[in-house]
C-alpha cells in the first residue's frame, strides 16, 4: 500500500510528540522526597547500606527521587532541631523511639504509621510495634531493630595472657587494674568525647542495675528526686570506677570513632559500647579487611558489666527499641507524596533491608524470621545476646533533654574531677524542675 511521504512525516511527528508528552508527564510526576538520615560514613557496612538499600530503592522506584542528607552524631541532632524550629522538616526522618527525638514525638511532627502497616504489623516482633514503647504513645516510627546500648566487649586472649578470667563481679574487675598497669595497658577503652556516650553505654546500665526501672518511673513522676540518696549513690559508684582505676579520664578525650581500633589493636582487653559497635569490627566488603578478622572473632566475648554490690536488677543491661524512620506530618493525607514516603519507609524496614543490616552488624531485626547465612562469628554471637539478659531503661529514651543533658555533661565532669556527684545531681534536679514547670 502506498503512503504519501507527507503522511509518513505526519505520523512520525505525531509519535514523537506523544512520546515527548509522555516523557514530560513522567518527569512532572516524579516525586522528590527529602530525607534526613543518620549514617556513619566510616562504618564497614556503609557502602552496602547506600548501594543495596538506598540506591536499590531508587532503581526500583524511578518515579521517586531521593534527596538524602547523611549526618552522624551531634551534627545530626542539631540539624534536626534546626529543621523543626524552622517548620521545614524533611519528608522522611531518621528518629529515635524516645527522648532523643523528643521534639518529633511531643509536637506530633511525624504521622502515626499504624494505619499504613495494616495486617503487616503481625510480621514484626510485638515489642517493636507497641506504641507504648515510643515516647508519643503512637507509632511515630517503625524501628529497624532492637538495641542493647550497653555491651562489655572482652578480648579473652589478652586476659588469658594476663592469667585472669572474664570478671564475674566488680571486685574481680577491680583486681584486674594492677594486671593492666603491669602490661602497660588500659583496662577499658571508651570513646567518650561526645557527651552522650557515657550516659547511654554505661551509666544507664548502672542506673538499671542499682535502682531499677520502677525507681526511674518515680523520678519521672516526681515521687523521688535526683538529689535523693539512691540516685546520688549511683553517681558515686560511677566516680568509684575512676578512683579504682577501672576507667581513666582519658576516655573523655578519646573520639568516639577511635575506640574500636584501640580495642582491636590490643590497647585494652575491654571496651564498653553499644551493640551496634559490632559492625565496626566486621569485614569491610570494599577492602576485604576487618578490624578483627573472622578467624579471630571467637576470641571476643560479648557480655555485660560484672555484678555490682547492691544491685536490684541483676543480669541486666540497658535496652531500647532501635532507631527507625518517621514521616513528616506536613505531608498531605492521601497525597502522592504520602504514598511515596510510605513506600520508602516500608522498604527501609523490609525483610531485605533488615537482612542486609543483620549481615553488616548494623542492627538486630525487628521483623520475625529474618536470618542470614555465612554470618561472621561476632554477628552470630550478637544474635544470641538478647536472650541472656534483662532489659532496663536507657535514660535518654525516658527522660526529657532538660534532664538527661545535665547527666551527660555531668558524667564527663566527674570523670575529669570537675564536679562531684552531689553537684551533678543538683543540676539534674534543676533541669527536671524546669521541665515540670513547662
Record field, number of beta strands: 15
Terminus-to-terminus distance? 85 Å
Strand order of the largest sheet: 2-1-3-13-4
Instruction: Quickly give the structural class.
Output: alpha/beta
Radius of gyration: 25 Å
Average the pLDDT over all residues and give the rounded result.
92
Instruction: Report the principal-axis shape.
Output: globular
What percentage of amino acids are in beta strands?
A: 5-15%
- Helix coverage percent: 40-55%
Q: What do these coordinates show?
A:
- The chain is of the alpha/beta class and 438 residues long.
- The chain is 46% helix and 14% strand.
- It contains 20 helices and 15 strands.
- Strands 2-1-3-13-4 form a 5-stranded mixed beta sheet. A 4-stranded mixed beta sheet has the order 14-5-12-15. The protein has a 4-stranded mixed beta sheet with strand order 7-8-6-11.
- Strand 9 (283-284) and strand 10 (289-290) form a beta hairpin.
- Mean pLDDT is 92; it is low at 1-6 and 8-27.
Amino acid at each position: 500500500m502506498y503512503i504519501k511521504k507527507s503522511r509518513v512525516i505526519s505520523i512520525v511527528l505525531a509519535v514523537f510528540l506523544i512520546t515527548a508528552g509522555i516523557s514530560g508527564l513522567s518527569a512532572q510526576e516524579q516525586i522528590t522526597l527529602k530525607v534526613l538520615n543518620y549514617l556513619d560514613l566510616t562504618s564497614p557496612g556503609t557502602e552496602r547500606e547506600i548501594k543495596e538499600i538506598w540506591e536499590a530503592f531508587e532503581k526500583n522506584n524511578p518515579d521517586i527521587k531521593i534527596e538524602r542528607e547523611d549526618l552522624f552524631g551531634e551534627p545530626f541532632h542539631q540539624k534536626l532541631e534546626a529543621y523543626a524550629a524552622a517548620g521545614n522538616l524533611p519528608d522522611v526522618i531518621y528518629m529515635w523511639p524516645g527522648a532523643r527525638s523528643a521534639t518529633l514525638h511531643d509536637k506530633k511532627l511525624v504521622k502515626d504509621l499504624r494505619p499504613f502497616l495494616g495486617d503487616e504489623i503481625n510480621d514484626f516482633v510485638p515489642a517493636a510495634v507497641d506504641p507504648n514503647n515510643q515516647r508519643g504513645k503512637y507509632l511515630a516510627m517503625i524501628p529497624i531493630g532492637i538495641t542493647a546500648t550497653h555491651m562489655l566487649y572482652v578480648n579473652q586472649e589478652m586476659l588469658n595472657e594476663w592469667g585472669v578470667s572474664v570478671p564475674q563481679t566488680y571486685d574481680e574487675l577491680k583486681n584486674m587494674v594492677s594486671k593492666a598497669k603491669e602490661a602497660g595497658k588500659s583496662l577499658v577503652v571508651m570513646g567518650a568525647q561526645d557527651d552522650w556516650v557515657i550516659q547511654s553505654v554505661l551509666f544507664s546500665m548502672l542506673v538499671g542495675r542499682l535502682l531499677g526501672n520502677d525507681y526511674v518511673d518515680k523520678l519521672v513522676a516526681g515521687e523521688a528526686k535526683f538529689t535523693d540518696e539512691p540516685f546520688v549513690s549511683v553517681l558515686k559508684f560511677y566516680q568509684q570506677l575512676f578512683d579504682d582505676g577501672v576507667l581513666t579520664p582519658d576516655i573523655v578525650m578519646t573520639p568516639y570513632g577511635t575506640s574500636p581500633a584501640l580495642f582491636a589493636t590490643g590497647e585494652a582487653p575491654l571496651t564498653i559500647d553499644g551493640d551496634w559497635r559490632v559492625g565496626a569490627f566486621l569485614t569491610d566488603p570494599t577492602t576485604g579487611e576487618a578490624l578483627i578478622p573472622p578467624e579471630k572473632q571467637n576470641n571476643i566475648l560479648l557480655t555485660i558489666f560484672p555484678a555490682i554490690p547492691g544491685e536490684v536488677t541483676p543480669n541486666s543491661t540497658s535496652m531500647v527499641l532501635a532507631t527507625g524512620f518517621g514521616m513528616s506530618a506536613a505531608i498531605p493525607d492521601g497525597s502522592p507524596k504520602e504514598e511515596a514516603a510510605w513506600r520508602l519507609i516500608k522498604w527501609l524496614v523490609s525483610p531485605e533491608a533488615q537482612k542486609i543490616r543483620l549481615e553488616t552488624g548494623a542492627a538486630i531485626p525487628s521483623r520475625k524470621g529474618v536470618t542470614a547465612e555465612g554470618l561472621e562469628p561476632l554477628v552470630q554471637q550478637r544474635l544470641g545476646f538478647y536472650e541472656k539478659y534483662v532489659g532496663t531503661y536507657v535514660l535518654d529514651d525516658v527522660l526529657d533533654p532538660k534532664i538527661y543533658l545535665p547527666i551527660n555533661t555531668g558524667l564527663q565532669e566527674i570523670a575529669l574531677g570537675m564536679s562531684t556527684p552531689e553537684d551533678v545531681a543538683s543540676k539534674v534536679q534543676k533541669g527536671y524542675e524546669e521541665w515540670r514547670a513547662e
